[in-house]
C-alpha cells in the first residue's frame, strides 16, 4: 500500500543518519533551520508591517477624520447649516467644524512650530483619541477655564516637553496673519494657559498639535463667524468614497470634499509597495532552504544507492522508493514550517516585551518613536496571511523533494551494484 509502515520506517532510518553519514545529517539540519527561520521571519515581518499600517491609519484617521469639507472661496460662513445637513447623511457618525492654522508656540524655555485646531468643547469631548489620552490635567479644567473667560489649551505631550511647560503654565502663540496697519501686517500674539497635555502615541502629532476653543480660534486667526473646514467621520472608513457624493450635495456649492484616501494616497501606497517587496525578498529565504533540501536528498540518494538497489531486487517498487524519499524531504519541510509558525506567533504575541528586553540588554533605542512615529512596536497577524505563508512553505518543501525522489526511483539496481 502507498505510504505503508515499511516506507515510513525506512524514511525514519534515513533521517537518523549514522556517524559516517554525519554530513548528510548536517545538511538536513541546516535545511530545517532555514525553513523554520524563513517561515518565522515572514510571519513576524508581515505582522509588523500590518500592525504599523493599521496603527498609522487608526491614529491618522482618528485625528484627521475620514473626510474634510472645505470652502472653495477660503471662507465658510454658513458652516453651521452645512454641518447640520451633513449630519443628516446616512452613515455619517460625527461632524466637526474647526479652525486650523500654523503658529509659533513659545515659552521662557523654548519655542517650536505648532498646528492649532479650534473646535467646540463638546466636539473635543467626543474626540476619543484626545479625550481618552490626556496625560496631565483634564477636560474639566479646560471647560472651567473657558467658562471663566480665560483661554485654555490642550497641548501635545512632546510639544509641552520641548517648550518646558506643564499644566497651569502660560504659552504664547504667534500667528503670521494679524492686523493690517499702514506699516504692513503685524503678527497676532496672545498668551494662553495650558489646561492639559495629551499623548496619542504618534510622535508627529504629540509634538505639533494644540487644541483650543472654536470661538477663541476664530478670533485668533481672524475668521469671525467662519471656519477652515468641516471634518466628517463615517461608519465605514474603507468605503469612504461611497459617502462623498451625498456629503458634497449636503455641503452645497461652496463646499469641496476630500477623503482620507486622496489626502494620504502617496503615503499609504508607499507602505503597500514596501510591504509587497518585503514579502518577495523574504520569500527567498524559503527558496534557499528548499534548495538545501534538494542538495541533501541528492547526497542521500547517492549514498544509499546500494541500499536502494538491494531493496528493488527484493521486490520494492519504484513508487515505494520514491515515496520513501518524499517522506524524508517532506518531513524536514513540515517540521521546519510548523516550528517556524510557532516561533513566529509567539514572537508576535510578545514583540513589545522582546523589544524592551533588547533595549535593556543592549542599551540601543530600538524603534525610535521620533523616526517611526509610533511609541510602541505594533504587530497584527492576519489569519489568511499566516495560512498563506505556511502553505507556501509546505508547497516549496514538497516540490523540492520531487526530483531527487524521482531520481532515486529511476536508479538501476544492476548499475548500483556493479562495483559493490
UniProtKB/TrEMBL annotation:
The chain crosses the membrane at residues 23-49, 277-301, 322-347, 353-374, 386-406. Keywords: Cell membrane, Lipoprotein, Membrane, Transmembrane, Transmembrane helix, Transport. Residues 280-413 form the ABC3 transporter permease C-terminal domain. GO terms for biological process: lipoprotein localization to outer membrane; lipoprotein transport. Belongs to the ABC-4 integral membrane protein family. LolC/E subfamily. One of its GO terms (cellular component) is plasma membrane protein complex. It comes from Pyruvatibacter mobilis. Residues 29-249 form the MacB-like periplasmic core domain. InterPro entries: ABC3_permease_C, Lipoprotein-release_system, LolCE_TM, MacB_PCD. Signal peptide: none annotated. It is a multi-pass membrane protein. It is found in: Cell membrane. This is Lipoprotein-releasing ABC transporter permease subunit. It comes from the Bacteria. The lineage of its organism: Bacteria, Pseudomonadati, Pseudomonadota, Alphaproteobacteria, Hyphomicrobiales.
Amino acid at each position: 500500500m502507498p505510504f505503508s509502515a515499511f516506507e515510513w520506517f525506512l524514511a525514519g532510518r534515513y533521517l537518523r543518519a549514522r556517524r559516517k553519514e554525519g554530513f548528510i545529517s548536517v545538511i538536513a539540519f541546516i535545511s530545517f533551520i532555514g525553513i523554520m527561520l524563513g517561515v518565522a521571519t515572514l510571519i513576524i515581518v508581515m505582522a509588523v508591517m500590518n500592525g504599523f499600517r493599521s496603527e498609522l491609519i487608526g491614529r491618522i484617521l482618528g485625528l484627521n477624520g475620514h473626510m474634510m469639507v472645505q470652502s472653495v472661496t477660503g471662507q465658510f460662513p454658513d458652516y453651521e447649516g452645512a454641518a447640520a445637513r451633513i449630519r443628516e447623511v446616512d452613515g455619517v457618525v460625527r461632524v466637526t467644524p474647526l479652525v486650523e492654522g500654523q503658529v509659533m508656540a513659545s515659552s521662557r524655555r523654548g519655542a517650536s512650530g505648532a498646528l492649532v485646531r479650534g473646535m467646540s468643547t463638546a466636539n473635543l469631548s467626543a474626540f476619543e483619541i484626545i479625550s481618552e489620552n490626556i496625560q496631565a490635567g483634564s477636560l474639566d479644567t479646560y471647560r472651567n477655564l473657558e467658562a471663566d473667560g480665560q483661554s485654555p489649551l490642550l497641548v501635545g505631550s512632546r510639544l509641552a516637553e520641548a517648550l518646558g511647560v506643564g499644566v497651569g503654565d502660560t504659552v504664547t502663540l504667534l500667528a503670521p496673519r494679524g492686523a493690517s496697519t499702514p506699516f504692513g501686517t503685524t503678527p497676532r500674539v496672545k498668551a494662553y494657559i495650558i489646561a492639559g497635555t495629551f499623548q496619542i502615541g504618534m510622535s508627529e502629532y504629540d509634538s505639533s498639535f494644540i487644541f483650543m476653543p472654536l470661538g477663541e480660534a476664530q478670533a485668533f486667526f481672524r475668521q469671525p463667524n467662519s471656519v477652515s473646514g468641516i471634518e466628517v467621520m463615517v461608519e465605514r472608513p474603507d468605503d469612504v468614497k461611497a459617502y462623498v457624493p451625498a456629503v458634497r450635495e449636503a455641503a452645497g456649492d461652496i463646499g469641496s470634499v476630500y477623503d482620507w484616501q486622496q489626502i494620504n494616497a502617496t503615503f499609504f501606497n508607499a507602505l503597500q509597495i514596501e510591504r509587497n517587496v518585503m514579502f518577495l525578498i523574504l520569500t527567498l529565504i524559503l527558496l534557499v532552504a528548499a534548495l538545501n533540501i534538494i542538495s541533501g536528498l541528492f547526497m542521500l540518494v547517492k549514498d544509499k544507492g546500494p541500499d536502494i538497489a538491494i531493496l528493488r531486487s527484493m521486490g520494492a517498487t519504484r513508487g515505494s522508493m520514491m515515496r520513501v524519499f518524499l517522506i524524508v524531504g517532506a518531513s524536514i519541510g513540515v517540521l521546519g514550517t510548523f516550528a517556524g509558525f510557532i516561533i513566529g506567533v509567539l514572537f508576535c504575541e510578545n514583540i513589545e516585551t522582546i523589544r524592551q528586553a533588547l533595549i535593556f540588554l543592549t542599551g540601543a533605542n530600538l524603534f525610535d518613536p521620533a523616526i517611526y512615529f509610533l511609541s510602541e512596536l505594533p504587530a497584527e497577524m492576519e489569519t489568511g496571511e499566516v495560512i498563506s505563508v505556511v502553505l507556501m512553505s509546505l508547497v516549496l518543501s514538497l516540490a523540492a523533494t520531487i526530483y531527487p525522489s524521482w531520481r532515486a526511483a529511476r536508479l538501476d539496481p544492476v548499475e548500483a551494484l556493479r562495483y559493490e
